[in-house]
Amino acid sequence: MTISVWRYSHLALAVSSFLLLSLAALTGIILAFGPVTEKMQPYRVNNFSDVTLAQALPALRTRYPGITALSVDVNQFVQAKGTGAGEKNPSVYVDPLTGKVLGHPGEENEFFQWVTALHRSLFLHEAGRFFIGLTAFLLLLITVSGTMLVIQRQRGLKRFFTPIVRENFAQFYHVVLGRWSLIPIMIIALTGTYLSLARFGFFDTAHVSPKVDFDVIQAKPVKSPAEFAIFKKTKLSEVESIEFPFSEDVEDYYTLKLRDREVTVNQVTGDILGEVKYPAAVFYTNLSLDLHTGRGSSVWAIILALASGNILFFIYSGFAITFKRLGNRTRNKFTAAESRFIILVGSENGSTFRFAQALNQQLLKAGEKSFVTELNNYARFPKAEHLVVMTATYGLGDAPTNATRLAKLLERYPQSQPISYSVLGFGSHAYPDFCKYAFEVNRLLSHQAWATALTDIHTVDDKSPEHFGLWAEAWSQQSGIPVTMLTGLDLAANARMESLTVTKITPAAQAGGTFTMAFKIGSRLRVRSGDLLAIYPANDHRERLYSIGVVGKEIRLSVRLHPEGLGSGFLHGLTVEQKIRARIVKNEHFHFPGGVPQVVMISNGTGIAPFLGMISQNRKKIPVQLYCGFRQRLTYNLYQDFLEQSAAEGKLAAIHTAFSREGNKQYVSHLIQRDGDKLARLFENGGILMICGSLAMQKDVMELLDAICMEQSGRGVSFYQSRNQVRTDCY
Ligand SMILES: Cc1cc2nc3c(=O)[nH]c(=O)nc-3n(C[C@H](O)[C@H](O)[C@H](O)COP(=O)(O)O)c2cc1C
What we know:
The protein has about 725 residues and is an alpha/beta fold. The protein starts with a helix and ends with a strand. Flavin mononucleotide binds next to helix 9 and strand 12.
């Protein structure tokens, strides 16, 4: 069953019962103090559990010759009824071994009586009892649906109590306290339901007293009650009440009402005259009363009070979660049919909508027609040119509730015009299947004839505005739509600019050729290979990003000189010692992974830049295989010395090169095809694959790998992507 069924049931049940549930929980907390205060009265004797009837009854009869009855309540207070030596009050708490008076039963507290009536029947008699019974049953269903949600969230029963990720106060404590109070609440709900059903006569609790055959009553042998076998083996703790013989006539007898049966006993011989077991329903009703009210144990009563308090908290936190979810949904200015930009959102808890809205606002401000909706509302978008998918991942790398139908809808509604798409995954590295569903969406879209990837898939870990900013920059560059001031998420405006000095620059052989350059790293600058360098060539909002390789104390860039290229032209025009203003964009997901058995790097063209830095950084000599493609050997020559030197130092295990415009004209994907088995094994052994370069190369490589992995292990490449074994930074 999907998470949504349980979630909707949980919510619907809670909404339909929260008023009565709040009342029952509140009164339940107050009533729990009844057993606690009662237990504090000094009427229970020590060693009560060991006292037998053979010890207690003779003592009480001697002390109270006129005793007619005795009762033992749930607090194990013994009450003698009748008239006794000098006692005016017909009912007293006594010490069953000595007969000493311990106190007198008082009037029941009026406030507790009032609250009890409210708790049981809302002062509405049978109708009120019915509604309270129904509320208990709904609580039972809420508990079951809540348990299923926790099991799904935790990915199985075995992991029920493993730590959970804290998203916000209400969500975190709703789950944490829910897990701890699950059993008491389940018991409250189950026993409440049972008691209501019992009250309405669903169970047979009637019992008959044993019949006594007076013709066979013996008057011999005469024994003292202390010698009666039944009295010797019956403990006071098993007794509810005892009726004493009315006179000394042999035909008058003891009636013992025990917890599970009624027994009549000859007062002269101690013979059992009759015995009737109660129906099982009596036992269950008593047990339910004990468990529901906490009347037998003050510790349990306190647990019940805490659990009832938690029910109140769940009502508050449940609504807080729901309102937050609803609050994040969006209203559109334009219709889906007229919009050029369609933003599709997969979200369970609503936070992804915030990011979608930030983009939406930007597009609207720029005068564009944009439409935001859930992934499950995917349809034909006749005017769309851009599709942006922002989706979270849940469960075992599954789709959020509002994104479950995408695969079917994509089949049903092929778009009739070409559309560029970009996928942004929201997830958390706290879960093993990081952004898996986003990778799945990316894969699905890549198979649509009408769809062209505008950017590489990006991921946002723990709602990081920084990660979102990275995607926004990439998307903005590709779409040509400036996405600058993302409300509340904009980092660029506040970013710290660095002043960087050029230390080296190699001229490009021709337009379209590659050049390399280096900048000095100041002592305060924190930068790692794989991070990005953002430059502002025209000193305006236009930003250009380059992958950084850190070698020694230098930032190294590899840049392809585009004719008319704003960024590449600007960089190419720099000279040694010249300074530029730039900022470092952290790109954590593309840093060199430590502590892994093996790394494979795949690049084409200038995508080699971050890998140069990573290789130089590989002091632990993790086996690194580099697959790099270039147009001409001439470009490779820029890096050859460095790579061969690294190989000689053990920092690079193998170099595989492909040249697309020379010799046997190979692309890097040909090398991947050749070494497919090796790469599939890399994944199985926990190795990491890193890809940097063009999106087209990435697409080819990923398709190849998908087919190879499917064949070798039965799992598509998205499986390894979601385990963070495939890291890409393509453009
Ligand atoms: C129960 C639960 C399961 C999750 N499972 C995953 C997961 O498998 N993979 C992942 O990357 N993130 C997972 N996440 C993190 C969410 O996808 C992430 O926090 C996302 O930003 C939430 O977006 P939303 O508020 O729009 O639903 C999970 C979060 C929760 C609460």
